[in-house]
Write a structure and sequence with these properties.
The complex is a heterodimer of chains A (413) and B (136). Chain A has 18 helices and no strands. With 413 residues, chain A is mostly helical. Among the domains of chain A are: 225-301; 309-413, Tetratricopeptide repeat domain (Serine Threonine Protein Phosphatase 5, Tetratricopeptide repeat), CATH 1.25.40.10. Chain A starts with a helix and ends with a helix. In chain A, 41% of the residues are buried. Chain B is α+β, with helices and mostly antiparallel strands and 136 residues long. Helix content of chain B is 24%, strand content 29%. Chain B is built from 2 helices and 6 strands, in the order βαββββαβ. Chain B starts with a strand and ends in a 13-residue tail after the last strand. The chains are: A mainly alpha (413), B alpha+beta (136). The A-B interface holds A 120-123, 126, 144-147, 149-151, 153-155, 157, 186, 189, 193-194, 196-198, 200, 203, 206, 236, 240, 247, 254, 256-257, 288, 292, 295-296, 299, 320, 324, 326, 328-329, 332, 364, 394-399, 401 and B 1-2, 41-48, 90-92, 123-136.
Chain lengths: 413, 136
Protein backbone atom coordinates (compact mmCIF):
# COMPACT_ATOMS: atom_id res chain seq x y z
CA UNK A 1 0.00 0.00 0.00
CA UNK A 2 2.93 2.30 -0.68
CA UNK A 3 2.06 5.63 -2.28
CA UNK A 4 3.92 4.77 -5.49
CA UNK A 5 2.33 6.83 -8.35
CA UNK A 6 1.94 3.88 -10.74
CA UNK A 7 0.31 1.86 -7.99
CA UNK A 8 -1.98 4.75 -7.07
CA UNK A 9 -3.04 5.00 -10.72
CA UNK A 10 -3.62 1.26 -10.93
CA UNK A 11 -5.77 1.21 -7.85
CA UNK A 12 -7.84 4.16 -9.04
CA UNK A 13 -8.48 2.39 -12.31
CA UNK A 14 -9.42 -0.94 -10.65
CA UNK A 15 -13.23 -0.59 -10.58
CA UNK A 16 -13.41 1.07 -14.02
CA UNK A 17 -11.39 -1.69 -15.65
CA UNK A 18 -13.43 -4.36 -13.90
CA UNK A 19 -16.65 -2.66 -14.96
CA UNK A 20 -15.59 -2.59 -18.61
CA UNK A 21 -14.62 -6.28 -18.57
CA UNK A 22 -17.84 -7.34 -16.82
CA UNK A 23 -19.88 -5.33 -19.32
CA UNK A 24 -18.25 -7.20 -22.16
CA UNK A 25 -18.14 -10.73 -20.77
CA UNK A 26 -21.05 -10.77 -18.25
CA UNK A 27 -19.14 -12.87 -15.70
CA UNK A 28 -18.25 -10.90 -12.60
CA UNK A 29 -16.27 -13.64 -10.84
CA UNK A 30 -14.09 -14.53 -13.82
CA UNK A 31 -13.67 -10.87 -14.80
CA UNK A 32 -12.48 -10.00 -11.32
CA UNK A 33 -9.86 -12.73 -11.57
CA UNK A 34 -8.76 -11.54 -15.02
CA UNK A 35 -8.43 -7.94 -13.84
CA UNK A 36 -6.20 -9.05 -10.96
CA UNK A 37 -3.99 -10.86 -13.44
CA UNK A 38 -3.85 -7.77 -15.64
CA UNK A 39 -2.80 -5.75 -12.58
CA UNK A 40 -0.07 -8.22 -11.81
CA UNK A 41 1.16 -7.94 -15.40
CA UNK A 42 1.15 -4.15 -15.07
CA UNK A 43 3.17 -4.16 -11.86
CA UNK A 44 5.79 -6.26 -13.64
CA UNK A 45 5.81 -4.44 -17.01
CA UNK A 46 5.13 -0.81 -16.24
CA UNK A 47 8.18 -0.15 -14.07
CA UNK A 48 10.36 -1.72 -16.77
CA UNK A 49 8.73 -0.38 -19.94
CA UNK A 50 7.03 2.71 -18.65
CA UNK A 51 3.34 3.42 -18.07
CA UNK A 52 1.42 3.01 -21.35
CA UNK A 53 -0.19 6.06 -22.94
CA UNK A 54 -3.67 4.76 -22.21
CA UNK A 55 -3.27 2.73 -19.01
CA UNK A 56 -6.98 2.02 -18.68
CA UNK A 57 -7.20 0.69 -22.25
CA UNK A 58 -4.05 -1.37 -21.71
CA UNK A 59 -5.48 -3.01 -18.60
CA UNK A 60 -8.84 -3.70 -20.23
CA UNK A 61 -7.08 -5.26 -23.19
CA UNK A 62 -4.86 -7.52 -21.10
CA UNK A 63 -7.78 -8.55 -18.86
CA UNK A 64 -9.97 -9.24 -21.91
CA UNK A 65 -7.25 -11.43 -23.37
CA UNK A 66 -7.19 -13.39 -20.12
CA UNK A 67 -10.97 -13.70 -20.29
CA UNK A 68 -10.74 -15.05 -23.85
CA UNK A 69 -8.18 -17.61 -22.70
CA UNK A 70 -10.47 -18.49 -19.83
CA UNK A 71 -13.48 -18.99 -22.14
CA UNK A 72 -11.36 -21.03 -24.54
CA UNK A 73 -10.14 -23.41 -21.86
CA UNK A 74 -13.66 -23.69 -20.40
CA UNK A 75 -14.91 -24.68 -23.84
CA UNK A 76 -12.12 -27.23 -24.28
CA UNK A 77 -12.98 -28.72 -20.92
CA UNK A 78 -16.65 -28.99 -21.82
CA UNK A 79 -15.74 -30.59 -25.16
CA UNK A 80 -13.82 -33.24 -23.33
CA UNK A 81 -16.74 -33.87 -21.02
CA UNK A 82 -19.70 -33.78 -23.37
CA UNK A 83 -20.06 -34.46 -27.03
CA UNK A 84 -22.68 -31.76 -27.58
CA UNK A 85 -20.21 -29.04 -26.66
CA UNK A 86 -18.20 -30.00 -29.75
CA UNK A 87 -20.70 -27.97 -31.75
CA UNK A 88 -20.21 -24.86 -29.64
CA UNK A 89 -17.94 -22.23 -31.06
CA UNK A 90 -15.83 -19.74 -29.26
CA UNK A 91 -17.81 -16.58 -28.82
CA UNK A 92 -15.86 -13.63 -27.62
CA UNK A 93 -18.07 -10.59 -27.29
CA UNK A 94 -16.79 -7.46 -29.02
CA UNK A 95 -15.56 -4.57 -26.88
CA UNK A 96 -18.41 -2.32 -25.77
CA UNK A 97 -18.66 1.08 -27.40
CA UNK A 98 -17.47 3.67 -24.93
CA UNK A 99 -20.31 5.95 -23.90
CA UNK A 100 -20.06 9.08 -21.77
CA UNK A 101 -20.40 8.55 -18.04
CA UNK A 102 -20.05 4.79 -18.26
CA UNK A 103 -16.79 4.70 -16.30
CA UNK A 104 -18.33 6.57 -13.38
CA UNK A 105 -21.37 4.31 -13.45
CA UNK A 106 -19.16 1.23 -13.56
CA UNK A 107 -17.23 2.23 -10.45
CA UNK A 108 -20.48 2.64 -8.60
CA UNK A 109 -22.00 -0.58 -9.94
CA UNK A 110 -18.92 -2.59 -8.99
CA UNK A 111 -19.02 -1.11 -5.50
CA UNK A 112 -22.74 -1.84 -5.14
CA UNK A 113 -22.15 -5.45 -6.20
CA UNK A 114 -19.29 -5.94 -3.75
CA UNK A 115 -21.47 -4.63 -0.91
CA UNK A 116 -24.53 -6.62 -1.91
CA UNK A 117 -26.80 -7.26 1.09
CA UNK A 118 -26.62 -11.03 0.41
CA UNK A 119 -22.98 -10.97 1.60
CA UNK A 120 -21.85 -11.15 5.22
CA UNK A 121 -19.99 -8.01 6.37
CA UNK A 122 -16.61 -9.75 6.41
CA UNK A 123 -16.97 -11.07 2.87
CA UNK A 124 -18.28 -7.74 1.53
CA UNK A 125 -15.31 -5.97 3.13
CA UNK A 126 -12.78 -8.39 1.62
CA UNK A 127 -14.31 -8.30 -1.86
CA UNK A 128 -14.60 -4.50 -1.83
CA UNK A 129 -10.95 -4.09 -0.88
CA UNK A 130 -9.89 -6.35 -3.73
CA UNK A 131 -12.29 -5.49 -6.56
CA UNK A 132 -12.73 -1.77 -5.83
CA UNK A 133 -9.64 -1.01 -3.77
CA UNK A 134 -7.31 -2.96 -6.05
CA UNK A 135 -5.49 -4.57 -3.11
CA UNK A 136 -4.04 -8.05 -3.48
CA UNK A 137 -5.40 -10.97 -1.52
CA UNK A 138 -2.13 -11.11 0.41
CA UNK A 139 -2.44 -7.44 1.43
CA UNK A 140 -6.02 -7.93 2.61
CA UNK A 141 -5.13 -11.12 4.49
CA UNK A 142 -2.29 -9.23 6.14
CA UNK A 143 -4.60 -6.40 7.18
CA UNK A 144 -7.03 -8.80 8.85
CA UNK A 145 -4.33 -11.09 10.24
CA UNK A 146 -5.62 -14.26 8.63
CA UNK A 147 -3.77 -16.67 6.30
CA UNK A 148 -3.78 -15.76 2.62
CA UNK A 149 -5.52 -19.04 1.67
CA UNK A 150 -8.36 -18.22 4.06
CA UNK A 151 -8.77 -14.76 2.56
CA UNK A 152 -8.68 -16.19 -0.98
CA UNK A 153 -11.51 -18.54 -0.03
CA UNK A 154 -13.50 -15.76 1.56
CA UNK A 155 -13.25 -13.66 -1.60
CA UNK A 156 -14.04 -16.55 -3.88
CA UNK A 157 -17.10 -17.47 -1.83
CA UNK A 158 -18.25 -13.87 -1.91
CA UNK A 159 -18.09 -13.93 -5.68
CA UNK A 160 -20.05 -17.20 -5.77
CA UNK A 161 -22.73 -15.62 -3.58
CA UNK A 162 -22.99 -12.70 -5.97
CA UNK A 163 -23.23 -15.05 -8.92
CA UNK A 164 -25.97 -17.16 -7.36
CA UNK A 165 -27.90 -14.09 -6.20
CA UNK A 166 -28.27 -13.24 -9.89
CA UNK A 167 -27.87 -9.51 -9.30
CA UNK A 168 -27.60 -7.86 -12.72
CA UNK A 169 -24.66 -5.59 -13.60
CA UNK A 170 -26.53 -2.31 -13.71
CA UNK A 171 -27.41 0.61 -11.47
CA UNK A 172 -30.13 -0.29 -8.96
CA UNK A 173 -33.70 0.83 -9.59
CA UNK A 174 -34.80 4.00 -7.78
CA UNK A 175 -36.70 2.06 -5.11
CA UNK A 176 -33.78 -0.23 -4.23
CA UNK A 177 -31.17 2.52 -4.50
CA UNK A 178 -31.34 3.85 -0.94
CA UNK A 179 -30.98 0.41 0.63
CA UNK A 180 -28.12 -0.61 -1.66
CA UNK A 181 -26.24 2.63 -1.12
CA UNK A 182 -26.72 2.30 2.64
CA UNK A 183 -25.07 -1.14 2.44
CA UNK A 184 -22.09 0.39 0.60
CA UNK A 185 -21.69 3.13 3.20
CA UNK A 186 -21.91 0.59 6.01
CA UNK A 187 -19.12 -1.51 4.48
CA UNK A 188 -16.92 1.57 4.00
CA UNK A 189 -17.64 2.58 7.59
CA UNK A 190 -16.65 -0.89 8.83
CA UNK A 191 -13.39 -0.78 6.85
CA UNK A 192 -12.59 2.60 8.37
CA UNK A 193 -13.42 1.42 11.86
CA UNK A 194 -11.33 -1.71 11.46
CA UNK A 195 -8.36 0.41 10.51
CA UNK A 196 -8.91 3.27 12.91
CA UNK A 197 -9.67 1.33 16.05
CA UNK A 198 -6.81 -1.10 15.50
CA UNK A 199 -4.15 1.46 14.64
CA UNK A 200 -2.67 0.87 18.03
CA UNK A 201 0.25 -1.03 19.45
CA UNK A 202 1.48 -4.04 17.50
CA UNK A 203 -1.09 -3.65 14.74
CA UNK A 204 0.02 -0.29 13.47
CA UNK A 205 0.09 -1.30 9.82
CA UNK A 206 -3.67 -1.72 9.83
CA UNK A 207 -4.16 2.04 9.93
CA UNK A 208 -3.80 1.77 6.16
CA UNK A 209 -7.31 0.38 6.11
CA UNK A 210 -8.60 3.70 7.44
CA UNK A 211 -6.78 5.53 4.65
CA UNK A 212 -8.19 3.09 2.13
CA UNK A 213 -11.73 3.63 3.44
CA UNK A 214 -11.25 7.40 3.14
CA UNK A 215 -9.92 7.03 -0.42
CA UNK A 216 -12.90 4.89 -1.47
CA UNK A 217 -15.42 7.16 0.24
CA UNK A 218 -13.87 10.14 -1.52
CA UNK A 219 -14.36 8.32 -4.82
CA UNK A 220 -18.03 7.69 -3.99
CA UNK A 221 -18.43 11.31 -2.97
CA UNK A 222 -17.04 12.48 -6.32
CA UNK A 223 -19.59 10.24 -8.06
CA UNK A 224 -22.52 11.32 -5.87
CA UNK A 225 -21.66 14.87 -4.77
CA UNK A 226 -25.26 15.68 -3.85
CA UNK A 227 -25.80 12.76 -1.50
CA UNK A 228 -25.85 14.03 2.08
CA UNK A 229 -25.05 10.72 3.75
CA UNK A 230 -22.04 10.05 1.51
CA UNK A 231 -20.68 13.49 2.41
CA UNK A 232 -21.62 12.84 6.04
CA UNK A 233 -19.69 9.59 6.15
CA UNK A 234 -16.63 11.14 4.51
CA UNK A 235 -16.77 14.02 6.99
CA UNK A 236 -17.13 11.61 9.90
CA UNK A 237 -14.06 9.68 8.77
CA UNK A 238 -11.96 12.82 8.30
CA UNK A 239 -13.02 14.33 11.62
CA UNK A 240 -12.28 11.07 13.44
CA UNK A 241 -9.03 10.36 11.64
CA UNK A 242 -7.82 13.89 12.46
CA UNK A 243 -7.44 12.83 16.11
CA UNK A 244 -5.35 9.79 15.36
CA UNK A 245 -1.96 11.32 16.27
CA UNK A 246 -3.27 12.23 19.73
CA UNK A 247 -5.17 9.10 20.67
CA UNK A 248 -2.24 6.94 21.70
CA UNK A 249 0.62 7.57 24.08
CA UNK A 250 4.30 6.69 23.62
CA UNK A 251 3.72 3.06 24.71
CA UNK A 252 0.76 2.71 22.39
CA UNK A 253 -1.66 3.17 25.27
CA UNK A 254 -5.12 4.55 24.61
CA UNK A 255 -5.68 8.22 25.47
CA UNK A 256 -9.37 9.12 25.85
CA UNK A 257 -10.78 12.16 24.09
CA UNK A 258 -10.83 14.55 27.08
CA UNK A 259 -7.14 13.91 27.82
CA UNK A 260 -5.81 14.15 24.27
CA UNK A 261 -3.28 16.82 23.31
CA UNK A 262 -5.47 18.71 20.88
CA UNK A 263 -2.56 20.54 19.29
CA UNK A 264 -1.67 17.19 17.70
CA UNK A 265 -4.99 16.97 15.87
CA UNK A 266 -4.68 17.40 12.12
CA UNK A 267 -6.20 20.79 11.31
CA UNK A 268 -6.54 20.35 7.52
CA UNK A 269 -8.61 17.18 7.99
CA UNK A 270 -10.79 18.95 10.57
CA UNK A 271 -11.33 21.93 8.28
CA UNK A 272 -12.23 19.73 5.34
CA UNK A 273 -14.58 17.63 7.47
CA UNK A 274 -16.32 20.68 8.94
CA UNK A 275 -16.74 22.28 5.51
CA UNK A 276 -18.27 19.05 4.18
CA UNK A 277 -20.68 18.57 7.02
CA UNK A 278 -21.77 22.23 7.13
CA UNK A 279 -22.51 22.15 3.41
CA UNK A 280 -24.59 19.00 3.64
CA UNK A 281 -26.46 19.99 6.83
CA UNK A 282 -27.53 23.27 5.22
CA UNK A 283 -29.26 21.28 2.47
CA UNK A 284 -31.97 19.69 4.57
CA UNK A 285 -32.63 15.93 4.80
CA UNK A 286 -30.34 14.76 7.56
CA UNK A 287 -29.11 11.17 8.00
CA UNK A 288 -27.26 9.39 10.77
CA UNK A 289 -23.76 9.75 9.28
CA UNK A 290 -24.29 13.50 8.99
CA UNK A 291 -25.38 13.68 12.61
CA UNK A 292 -22.39 11.64 13.76
CA UNK A 293 -20.14 13.89 11.69
CA UNK A 294 -21.74 16.96 13.24
CA UNK A 295 -21.03 15.55 16.71
CA UNK A 296 -17.42 14.76 15.75
CA UNK A 297 -17.11 18.32 14.42
CA UNK A 298 -18.27 19.78 17.75
CA UNK A 299 -15.62 17.75 19.57
CA UNK A 300 -12.94 18.77 17.08
CA UNK A 301 -13.85 22.46 17.27
CA UNK A 302 -13.26 22.65 21.03
CA UNK A 303 -9.77 23.92 21.79
CA UNK A 304 -9.96 22.36 25.27
CA UNK A 305 -12.15 19.49 26.51
CA UNK A 306 -13.97 21.90 28.83
CA UNK A 307 -14.91 24.09 25.85
CA UNK A 308 -16.94 21.27 24.27
CA UNK A 309 -20.46 22.34 23.34
CA UNK A 310 -22.20 19.52 25.23
CA UNK A 311 -25.75 20.95 25.01
CA UNK A 312 -25.46 20.91 21.23
CA UNK A 313 -23.99 17.37 21.28
CA UNK A 314 -26.81 16.23 23.55
CA UNK A 315 -29.37 17.63 21.12
CA UNK A 316 -27.69 15.81 18.22
CA UNK A 317 -27.61 12.49 20.10
CA UNK A 318 -31.31 13.03 20.84
CA UNK A 319 -31.94 13.31 17.09
CA UNK A 320 -29.81 10.23 16.39
CA UNK A 321 -31.67 8.25 19.02
CA UNK A 322 -34.98 9.18 17.45
CA UNK A 323 -33.66 8.09 14.06
CA UNK A 324 -32.31 4.69 15.09
CA UNK A 325 -33.00 2.64 18.17
CA UNK A 326 -29.34 1.83 18.74
CA UNK A 327 -28.10 1.05 22.27
CA UNK A 328 -24.58 2.36 21.48
CA UNK A 329 -26.12 5.70 20.56
CA UNK A 330 -28.12 5.51 23.79
CA UNK A 331 -24.85 5.06 25.71
CA UNK A 332 -23.32 8.15 24.13
CA UNK A 333 -26.57 10.01 24.78
CA UNK A 334 -26.24 9.12 28.46
CA UNK A 335 -22.70 10.55 28.54
CA UNK A 336 -23.87 13.79 26.92
CA UNK A 337 -26.78 13.95 29.37
CA UNK A 338 -24.35 13.64 32.29
CA UNK A 339 -22.18 16.41 30.85
CA UNK A 340 -25.16 18.76 30.56
CA UNK A 341 -27.50 17.80 33.43
CA UNK A 342 -25.04 16.14 35.81
CA UNK A 343 -23.92 12.54 36.44
CA UNK A 344 -27.09 11.35 38.25
CA UNK A 345 -29.19 12.07 35.14
CA UNK A 346 -26.73 10.09 33.01
CA UNK A 347 -26.59 7.21 35.49
CA UNK A 348 -30.40 7.01 35.50
CA UNK A 349 -30.32 6.52 31.71
CA UNK A 350 -27.72 3.76 32.09
CA UNK A 351 -29.98 1.92 34.54
CA UNK A 352 -32.66 1.85 31.85
CA UNK A 353 -30.12 0.21 29.49
CA UNK A 354 -29.40 -2.56 32.03
CA UNK A 355 -32.61 -4.26 30.95
CA UNK A 356 -31.85 -3.90 27.22
CA UNK A 357 -30.69 -7.36 26.13
CA UNK A 358 -28.61 -5.92 23.26
CA UNK A 359 -26.30 -4.00 25.58
CA UNK A 360 -26.78 -5.48 29.06
CA UNK A 361 -23.47 -7.02 30.10
CA UNK A 362 -21.57 -5.20 27.34
CA UNK A 363 -18.30 -3.82 28.64
CA UNK A 364 -19.03 -0.33 27.31
CA UNK A 365 -22.04 -0.02 29.56
CA UNK A 366 -19.83 -0.68 32.60
CA UNK A 367 -17.04 1.52 31.25
CA UNK A 368 -19.40 4.47 30.87
CA UNK A 369 -20.93 3.78 34.28
CA UNK A 370 -17.47 3.82 35.84
CA UNK A 371 -16.78 7.16 34.21
CA UNK A 372 -20.07 8.71 35.38
CA UNK A 373 -19.72 7.28 38.91
CA UNK A 374 -16.27 8.83 39.10
CA UNK A 375 -17.73 12.16 38.01
CA UNK A 376 -20.43 11.75 40.66
CA UNK A 377 -17.75 11.39 43.34
CA UNK A 378 -18.29 7.70 44.04
CA UNK A 379 -14.79 6.26 43.52
CA UNK A 380 -15.44 2.86 45.14
CA UNK A 381 -18.41 2.13 42.88
CA UNK A 382 -16.49 3.51 39.89
CA UNK A 383 -13.59 1.11 40.51
CA UNK A 384 -16.04 -1.77 40.56
CA UNK A 385 -17.53 -0.74 37.22
CA UNK A 386 -14.12 -0.19 35.61
CA UNK A 387 -13.02 -3.64 36.76
CA UNK A 388 -16.20 -5.27 35.48
CA UNK A 389 -15.69 -3.55 32.11
CA UNK A 390 -12.02 -4.63 31.97
CA UNK A 391 -13.02 -8.23 32.57
CA UNK A 392 -15.52 -8.16 29.72
CA UNK A 393 -13.79 -6.29 26.92
CA UNK A 394 -12.18 -8.20 24.06
CA UNK A 395 -9.92 -5.24 23.31
CA UNK A 396 -6.44 -5.35 24.74
CA UNK A 397 -5.67 -1.58 24.78
CA UNK A 398 -9.15 -0.92 26.17
CA UNK A 399 -8.61 -3.46 28.95
CA UNK A 400 -5.29 -1.84 29.85
CA UNK A 401 -6.98 1.56 29.92
CA UNK A 402 -9.85 0.37 32.13
CA UNK A 403 -7.46 -1.39 34.52
CA UNK A 404 -5.41 1.82 34.76
CA UNK A 405 -8.57 3.76 35.62
CA UNK A 406 -9.46 1.23 38.33
CA UNK A 407 -5.92 1.23 39.71
CA UNK A 408 -5.74 5.04 39.78
CA UNK A 409 -8.98 5.39 41.77
CA UNK A 410 -8.35 2.33 43.94
CA UNK A 411 -5.13 3.79 45.27
CA UNK A 412 -6.86 6.78 46.85
CA UNK A 413 -7.49 6.58 50.60
CA UNK B 1 -14.08 -11.66 15.31
CA UNK B 2 -11.50 -14.26 16.17
CA UNK B 3 -12.17 -17.08 18.60
CA UNK B 4 -9.93 -19.72 20.07
CA UNK B 5 -11.54 -23.13 20.38
CA UNK B 6 -9.75 -25.30 22.91
CA UNK B 7 -10.43 -28.99 22.84
CA UNK B 8 -10.26 -30.54 26.27
CA UNK B 9 -10.02 -34.29 26.11
CA UNK B 10 -10.87 -36.39 29.13
CA UNK B 11 -8.18 -38.82 30.12
CA UNK B 12 -8.59 -42.08 28.31
CA UNK B 13 -9.70 -40.56 24.99
CA UNK B 14 -8.07 -38.71 22.14
CA UNK B 15 -4.28 -38.78 21.90
CA UNK B 16 -4.09 -39.87 25.50
CA UNK B 17 -5.03 -43.46 24.74
CA UNK B 18 -5.27 -43.41 20.98
CA UNK B 19 -3.02 -46.46 20.83
CA UNK B 20 -5.91 -48.49 22.26
CA UNK B 21 -8.30 -47.46 19.51
CA UNK B 22 -8.99 -49.68 16.54
CA UNK B 23 -7.29 -48.49 13.35
CA UNK B 24 -10.74 -47.85 11.83
CA UNK B 25 -11.85 -45.73 14.77
CA UNK B 26 -8.61 -43.77 14.68
CA UNK B 27 -8.92 -43.19 10.95
CA UNK B 28 -12.54 -42.06 11.31
CA UNK B 29 -11.47 -39.59 13.99
CA UNK B 30 -8.58 -38.20 11.96
CA UNK B 31 -10.66 -37.98 8.78
CA UNK B 32 -13.25 -36.04 10.75
CA UNK B 33 -10.69 -33.54 12.01
CA UNK B 34 -9.13 -33.11 8.57
CA UNK B 35 -12.53 -32.53 7.01
CA UNK B 36 -13.28 -29.91 9.66
CA UNK B 37 -10.01 -28.12 8.89
CA UNK B 38 -10.69 -28.23 5.16
CA UNK B 39 -14.24 -26.93 5.57
CA UNK B 40 -13.03 -24.06 7.73
CA UNK B 41 -10.45 -23.14 5.12
CA UNK B 42 -13.07 -23.25 2.39
CA UNK B 43 -15.50 -21.14 4.36
CA UNK B 44 -12.77 -18.52 4.80
CA UNK B 45 -12.77 -18.84 8.59
CA UNK B 46 -9.55 -20.75 9.29
CA UNK B 47 -6.77 -18.84 11.05
CA UNK B 48 -4.77 -21.55 12.77
CA UNK B 49 -5.11 -24.93 14.39
CA UNK B 50 -2.83 -27.54 15.91
CA UNK B 51 -3.03 -30.77 17.77
CA UNK B 52 -0.79 -31.04 20.82
CA UNK B 53 1.50 -33.85 21.85
CA UNK B 54 0.26 -35.98 24.73
CA UNK B 55 0.16 -34.48 28.21
CA UNK B 56 2.72 -37.01 29.44
CA UNK B 57 5.30 -35.00 27.52
CA UNK B 58 4.21 -31.67 28.97
CA UNK B 59 6.59 -29.73 31.19
CA UNK B 60 5.94 -26.76 33.40
CA UNK B 61 8.55 -24.03 33.32
CA UNK B 62 9.10 -21.27 35.85
CA UNK B 63 11.83 -18.69 35.89
CA UNK B 64 14.27 -19.06 38.78
CA UNK B 65 15.85 -16.14 40.58
CA UNK B 66 18.46 -15.52 37.88
CA UNK B 67 15.94 -16.04 35.10
CA UNK B 68 17.09 -19.56 34.21
CA UNK B 69 14.26 -22.03 33.51
CA UNK B 70 13.24 -24.47 36.22
CA UNK B 71 11.50 -27.38 34.48
CA UNK B 72 9.15 -29.79 36.20
CA UNK B 73 6.91 -32.54 34.93
CA UNK B 74 3.36 -31.56 34.51
CA UNK B 75 1.23 -29.79 34.21
CA UNK B 76 -1.31 -31.54 36.39
CA UNK B 77 -0.87 -35.31 36.49
CA UNK B 78 -4.09 -35.67 38.48
CA UNK B 79 -6.19 -33.57 36.11
CA UNK B 80 -9.22 -35.28 34.61
CA UNK B 81 -8.92 -33.30 31.36
CA UNK B 82 -6.11 -31.91 29.30
CA UNK B 83 -5.75 -29.57 26.34
CA UNK B 84 -5.50 -31.79 23.28
CA UNK B 85 -5.54 -29.19 20.54
CA UNK B 86 -6.88 -25.83 19.46
CA UNK B 87 -8.27 -23.88 16.55
CA UNK B 88 -8.38 -20.16 15.91
CA UNK B 89 -11.25 -19.18 13.65
CA UNK B 90 -12.32 -15.80 12.29
CA UNK B 91 -16.09 -15.68 11.96
CA UNK B 92 -18.95 -13.22 11.90
CA UNK B 93 -20.56 -14.06 15.25
CA UNK B 94 -20.09 -15.88 18.52
CA UNK B 95 -23.01 -18.08 17.49
CA UNK B 96 -21.02 -19.29 14.48
CA UNK B 97 -17.99 -20.02 16.70
CA UNK B 98 -20.24 -22.15 18.93
CA UNK B 99 -21.46 -24.07 15.88
CA UNK B 100 -17.89 -24.86 14.86
CA UNK B 101 -17.08 -25.87 18.43
CA UNK B 102 -20.08 -28.18 18.56
CA UNK B 103 -18.96 -29.83 15.35
CA UNK B 104 -15.44 -30.34 16.71
CA UNK B 105 -16.93 -31.71 19.91
CA UNK B 106 -18.81 -34.40 18.01
CA UNK B 107 -15.65 -36.03 16.58
CA UNK B 108 -16.02 -39.82 16.69
CA UNK B 109 -14.34 -41.74 19.49
CA UNK B 110 -13.12 -45.33 19.93
CA UNK B 111 -16.59 -46.84 19.48
CA UNK B 112 -17.41 -44.58 16.55
CA UNK B 113 -19.91 -42.64 18.69
CA UNK B 114 -19.36 -38.87 19.12
CA UNK B 115 -16.90 -38.02 21.90
CA UNK B 116 -18.82 -34.82 22.80
CA UNK B 117 -15.62 -33.39 24.23
CA UNK B 118 -15.85 -30.06 26.02
CA UNK B 119 -14.60 -27.26 23.77
CA UNK B 120 -13.75 -24.01 25.50
CA UNK B 121 -14.52 -21.00 23.30
CA UNK B 122 -12.65 -17.78 24.04
CA UNK B 123 -12.67 -14.56 22.06
CA UNK B 124 -9.22 -13.41 20.96
CA UNK B 125 -8.39 -9.89 22.15
CA UNK B 126 -8.64 -7.36 19.36
CA UNK B 127 -8.67 -3.67 18.65
CA UNK B 128 -10.35 -1.17 20.92
CA UNK B 129 -13.76 0.22 20.20
CA UNK B 130 -13.77 3.88 19.34
CA UNK B 131 -14.24 6.47 22.03
CA UNK B 132 -16.60 8.75 20.15
CA UNK B 133 -17.97 7.12 17.04
CA UNK B 134 -21.35 5.55 17.63
CA UNK B 135 -21.27 2.05 16.27
CA UNK B 136 -24.04 0.77 14.05
Amino acid sequence: MAPDPAETLLRELAPQVLGAVVRRFHDFAAAEEAVQEAFLAATVQWPREGVPENPRGWLIQVASRRMTDHIRSELARRRRETRSAAQETLEVPPPAEPSPGVEEDDTLIVLLMCCHPALTPSSAISLTLRAVGGLTTAEIANAFLVPEATMAQRISRAKQTIRSSGVPFRLPTPDERAERLAAVLHVLYLIFNEGYTSSIGPQLQRSDLAQEAIRLTRAVQRLLPDDGEVAGLLALMLLTDARRPARTGPQGELIPLPEQDRTKWERPLIEEGIALVSRTLSRGSVGSYQLQAAIAALHDEAARAEDTDWPQILALYGLLLRMSDNPMVALNHAIATAMVHGPPAGLALLRALDSDARVAGHYRLDAVRGHLLEMAGEPAAAVESYRAAAARTASLPERDYLNRQAARLGRRP
Amino acid sequence: MKYMLMMHAPKGTGDWAAGDWSPEALKAHMDFMMRLAKDLEESGEWVAGEGLAGPGEARVVRATKGGAPAVTDGPFPEAKEFLAGFWIVDCDSAQRAYEIAARASSAPGPSGAPLNMPIEVRQVMNAPGDESVAKG
